């Protein structure tokens, strides 16, 4: 496999990929073909009660070919790294790569890719039952332990959430760790959640003293989010109320270099108590303010900023029922018991320029009051903003127990594929084959994928916002490390374009500066380097 980049001005002379007319573009349901065996991945997440939660994955390019590779948490099984050998537009193919990291690969709950040291290799933060580990990436997908050189104390907690952001002019990112039950406390597990932790770099390439975020309510997911368009992200945390009497959702004010302060009732933050499992962010209505999908045991919440809120008042209302996205019971079978939601993620599976919502589902561990057969959700967004459940039609309604997940285009064909980490069974790996027709399969809507290069510091542009305009439609996405359920990814950001054959891209870089507009053709991988006048195209090419 090799890669090359062609400048935008030169690419204007090339013929773009085929597109579809308005009359040829119905409301498509993607056909998802499970290919874990074909792809050569054998891996499952397992273990006793500490591993009822977690079960995450990380997707990132570890060898410079721009094809996303996979790191999978195993619980009491070894975590594993699989290198992506898929041919562009072909079946999925992965190759297991051995990692000489000893006991660091066991007791792994989740993983998030993050280029901590700003070099050309992606690093990985792994969450464990015990000491968390940061792995420094090297050439050809090699990794070494990085804790000591960063002065990073991995602690002894049971960590289940993670998020990262670059604050101010810091060279290294600020790290947030969400912790679960304190197993050593009297009365464990009830009401014994460990505090969450914030770590800021000290300016010397190392990390300073831990900042305790108390109270901790057993966090299972967290994300840095610019909820009020201030360009100063705060830390949102979703918590599992089951293990803390009086626990609730949290939002922390994270000001550059200042001590964090939790938003309370006087700030407009209202009490919300759920069994919080995962969190995802998207701007569903195009107003610039993000909505949040919060998974739980029972109904899913989708929170939207209330009209009465201002830049200092995080007042939210639940719109999941209005959008048809509560996903509170299995959509197949006759089991009327509540569902159990884990990983949540917004994406555009059918490239119709509307956000879809994926939710990984699975009983915690034979809990009799909750559904046993609980298939994953694929809620496709319609033109009216309402979601429709299409998981059964798409082919993802397997009898598995899902936890973490990755939504990514693994074969560079412009259609999003899906990995689900399952408890006590092999992962599910779905190839998106496009829309099923009587003649076979065909691509759905047009698309564009965008990679940002922020320069020497924070090269992946964590915290940047990408805006894509097609006609009168504006879509936006923020580059984030965090959220989901114990699972994170980096690389190209995917946008469905529907029938549009061109798009205009603007980038708000992490410091708040906006780029000029970049006009690009649809159905291309676009690379935007900060400060460059032209965007570039990247084409995956197979060398025989």
Short description:
With 544 residues, the chain is mostly beta strands. The protein is built from 4 helices and 40 strands.
Report on this structure.
- The protein has 544 residues and is mainly β.
- It is 3% helix and 38% strand.
- The chain is built from four helices and 40 strands.
- The strands form nine sheets. A five-stranded mixed beta sheet has the order 1-40-39-31-36. Strands 2, 27, 28, 29 and 30 form a five-stranded antiparallel beta sheet that branches.
- A hairpin with an 8-residue loop joins strand 27 (402-408) and strand 28.
- The chain is globular.
- The model is unreliable at 1-26 (pLDDT under 50).
Largest sheet: 5 strands, mixed
In terms of per-residue confidence, which ranges show pLDDT below 50 for 5 or more consecutive residues?
A: 1-26
Say how many strands there are: 40
Number of helices: 4
Shape: globular
Q: Strand portion, in percent?
A: 35-45%
Overall helicity? under 10%
Rg, rounded, reads 22 Å
Mean pLDDT comes to: 92
Structural class per helix/strand content?
A: mainly beta
User: Distance N terminus to C terminus?
Assistant: 8 Å
Spatial sequence of strands, sheet with the most strands: 1-40-39-31-36
């Amino acid at each position: 496999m090799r890669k090359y980049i062609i400048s935008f001005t030169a690419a204007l002379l090339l013929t773009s990929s085929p597109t579809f007319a308005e009359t040829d573009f119905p409301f498509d349901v993607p056909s998802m073909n499970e290919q874990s065996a074909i792809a050569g991945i054998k891996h499952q997440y397992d273990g006793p009660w500490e591993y009822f939660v977690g079960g995450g994955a990380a997707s990132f390019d570890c060898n410079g070919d721009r094809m996303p590779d996979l790191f999978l948490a195993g619980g009491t099984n070894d975590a594993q790294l699989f290198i992506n050998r898929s041919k562009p537009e072909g079946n999925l193919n992965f190759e297991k790569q051995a990692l000489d990291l000893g006991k660091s690969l066991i007791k792994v709950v989740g993983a998030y890719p993050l280029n901590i040291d700003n070099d050309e290799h992606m690093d990985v933060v792994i969450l464990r039952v015990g000491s968390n580990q940061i792995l420094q990436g090297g050439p050809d997908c090699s990794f070494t332990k990085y804790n000591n050189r960063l002065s990073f104390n991995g602690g002894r907690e049971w960590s289940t959430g993670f998020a990262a952001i670059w604050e101010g002019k810091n060279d290294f990112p600020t790290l947030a760790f969400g912790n679960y039950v304190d197993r050593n406390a009297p009365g464990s597990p009830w009401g014994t959640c460990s505090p969450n932790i914030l770590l800021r770099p000290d300016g010397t390439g190392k990390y300073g003293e831990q900042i305790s975020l108390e109270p901790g309510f057993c966090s299972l997911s967290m994300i840095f989010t610019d909820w009020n368009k201030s360009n100063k992200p705060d830390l949102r945390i979703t918590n599992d109320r089951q293990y803390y009497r009086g626990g609730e959702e949290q939002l922390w004010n994270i000001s550059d270099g200042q001590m964090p302060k939790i938003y309370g009732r006087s700030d407009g933050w209202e009490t919300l108590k759920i069994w919080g499992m995962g969190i995802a962010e998207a701007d569903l209505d195009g107003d610039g303010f993000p909505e949040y999908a919060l998974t739980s045991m029972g109904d899913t919440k989708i929170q939207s900023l209330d009209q009465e809120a201002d830049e200092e008042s995080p007042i939210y209302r639940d719109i999941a029922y209005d959008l048809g996205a509560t996903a509170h019971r299995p959509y197949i079978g006759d089991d009327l018991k509540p569902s159990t939601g884990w990983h949540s993620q917004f994406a555009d599976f059918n490239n119709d320029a509307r956000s879809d919502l994926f939710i990984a589902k699975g009983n915690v561990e034979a809990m009799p009051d909750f559904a046993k057969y609980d298939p994953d959700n694929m809620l496709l967004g319609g033109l009216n903003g309402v979601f429709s459940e299409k998981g059964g039609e798409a082919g993802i309604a397997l009898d598995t127990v899902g936890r973490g997940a990755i939504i990514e285009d693994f074969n560079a064909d412009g259609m999003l594929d899906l990995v689900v980490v399952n408890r006590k069974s092999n992962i599910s790996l779905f190839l998106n084959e496009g829309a099923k027709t009587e003649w076979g399969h065909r691509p759905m809507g047009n698309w564009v994928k965008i990679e940002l290069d922020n320069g020497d510091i924070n090269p992946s542009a964590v915290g940047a916002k990408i805006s894509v305009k097609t006609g009168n439609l504006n879509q936006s996405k923020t580059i984030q490390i965090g959220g989901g359920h114990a699972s994170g990814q980096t690389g190209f950001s995917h946008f469905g374009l529907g029938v549009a054959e061109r798009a205009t891209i603007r980038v708000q870089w992490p410091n708040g500066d906006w780029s000029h507009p970049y006009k690009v053709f649809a159905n291309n991988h676009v690379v935007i380097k900060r400060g460059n006048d032209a965007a570039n195209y990247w084409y995956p090419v197979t060398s025989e």
